[in-house]
Amino acid sequence: DGEVRDVRLQAEVVRDGDSPRRVFGAALDITETKRTEEALRRAERQLRTLVDSVPDFLARLDRDGRYQFVSPAALRATGTDPAMLLGRTPVELGVCADPGQDRALQDSLARVVASGFPESLAVDFQTRDGPRQYEVRLIPERDDHGHVVSVLSIGRDLTERRVAEAALHASEERLRQVTSAIAETEIWGVETNLPL
Length: 196
Fold this sequence. Notes:
The chain is of the alpha+beta class. The protein contains six helices and seven strands, in the order ββαββααααβββα. A hairpin with a 2-residue loop joins β5 and β6 (130-142). The model has no long low-confidence stretch (mean pLDDT 86).
């Protein structure tokens, strides 16, 4: 049908002294293997582009809470060399602005591994720009038998949202005070049709 196929050829020459006598060979069609390999490379590129582009902090931690992977966004925000993070725990690294939060993060990781249920917590991560407020979601990753083998950590920066919420709350409080003062003010009118 004219289709081009990828083939792996293997041949062996049987010799009689210096003279070739026979050639034995085999051809193996590897077209599907090549297509599968290319599809895998394409999927890996797409996943890498996605992970590299997400602004959230992404990390994978082993069952002991040691970093196995940290996304480029987290590395950019913290200015940390990946070699300094990998294989270490949040407590060892002091990733949070408050050591108590490092311990809380480590304890939450241990609970996720033990229970198999996700957890969320708020922490202030130390970044190049100082502490920033993050919501961290810890999600168990399971093997084919359902055992927790690692934990996926997704950290979303809430700093601007929290600042906006605080400003909105302050504005609402000022409005409440003004409306309360108006309600307590006695209002009276003046007759304007008086003769001059």
